[in-house]
Amino acid sequence: MIAHWPSGYDVERYAEEHGLDFEDITRDIVRIATVAHLLDTGALDEDFVLTGGMALRLRGSNRFTIKDTDSSLRGRLDELELTGKLRLETDQLQVYPDPGTNWGRKTPKLVDVKPINYEAYFASVTGDPIEGQFSFTVSQRGLFEPAEWLALRHPYPELVIEPRSLKVPVMDIAEQAAEKVVGWAAGSLIKHYLDLAWIGREFGETLTAEDFQRLVQRKLDIGFETFPGAYKDLHEIKDLLIPLHRPREWQGPLNKAGDNGASLIRFMGPKLGFDEAISLVREHILPKLFVINTDH
Q1: What is residue 293's predicted lDDT score, i.e. its pLDDT?
Q2: Can you give the pLDDT at residue 16?
Q3: pLDDT tens by residue, 108-165
Q4: Do the strands 2-4 and 160-161 form a parallel or antiparallel pair, or are they unpaired?
């Protein structure tokens, strides 16, 4: 799958060009290689798709995801099979997840495969591998729309993946927007609001109100089924107006600590600030959910 790897000096150049840490760039390349490997092993398909920030990057988002790769599964999770398919052994990269018994299961129908350890020989300038960890999250909280297949695009010229026509199954953009709406309302992590704003700017015209509202309501229903206490005031679309229209005043019921995760936000390219995001959500997202005046 990987026809050519970047060198440690290439990784240093990427980090300098994008203003990011060497370790974060290395981990990102490792995660991209792991996604390619999951395609090669047949793990990712119509019923097992990428979601979250990694999926949005395949659509052109500049938000740089740091440690996790999100996915959504329609059907049963075979932990032993997934453990095997996440394992990658080449002379340039070794990836080996911890056994499933150690995976995070803090919330229903969401498995956090971690730690996934790696030794990145390609990134070394001394001969010793760069070691690190990342996680792979598997959600079983509903995958309703058909997958969209997108090219495995990335910003690293020296990383060559064959075949170049390789495509990855990702969650439908309307369904992903619905997940971002509910994710922000419930957890108030700023990454969800920024991603939602970006989706609104880039794909707002393609979102139909009827489909978007249907998907948002289904995600709310799943949230209520999973966390009835936390979602008691987030049960209908009308409950989303204040979280979306006045995000600075909002703290989601699942965010007990009140940390919106702003310190973890990184971009590869032009940044999207919170003020701009608020304007974009009011302009492109709220009209799809509500018939209101969003000028103020």
Answers
A1: 45
A2: 97
A3: 899 999 999 999 999 999 999 999 999 999 999 999 999 999 999 999 999 999 998 8
A4: antiparallel
**Is 261 in the same domain as 221?**
yes
Q: How far is CA 209 from CA 47, 116, 217, 289, in A?
A: 25, 39, 12, 6
Length of the chain: 296
The structure tokens listed for 172 are 């439908």
Q: How many domains, the chain?
A: 2
Give, in degrees to the nearest 5, the angle at Cα 240 between 185 and 247.
Answer: 60
Domain boundaries, position 274: 173-289
Q: Is residue 266 a contact partner of residue 201, using CB atoms and an 8 Å limit?
A: no
* pLDDT on residue 104: 79
In a domain, 258, yes or no: yes
Last residue of a domain, one of 170, 197, 223: 170
**Helix residue spans in 21-89 (DSSP H):** 22-40, 52-57, 79-86
Neighbouring residues of 67: CB distance < 8 A, sequence distance ≥ 6: 27, 133, 134, 135
Q: Using CA atoms, how far apart are residues 102 and 201, in angstroms rounded to an integer?
A: 40
Token pair listed for 15? 């980090």
Residues 6 or more apart in contact with residue 138 via CB below 8 angstroms: 71, 72, 73, 77, 82, 110, 111, 112, 113
Determine, yes or no, domain membership for 193: yes
Instruction: Please give the pLDDT value at position 57.
Output: 97
Inter-residue contact 31 to 54 (CB < 8 Å): yes
Intervals of the chain under pLDDT 50: 293-294, 296
Examine the domain organization and report whether 113 and 179 are in the same domain: no
**What pLDDT does residue 294 have?**
46
CA angle 66, 86, 117 (to 5 degrees): 55
- Roughly what angle, to the nearest 10 degrees, separates helices 209-226 and 173-187? 40
**Threshold 0.90, pTM exceeds:** yes
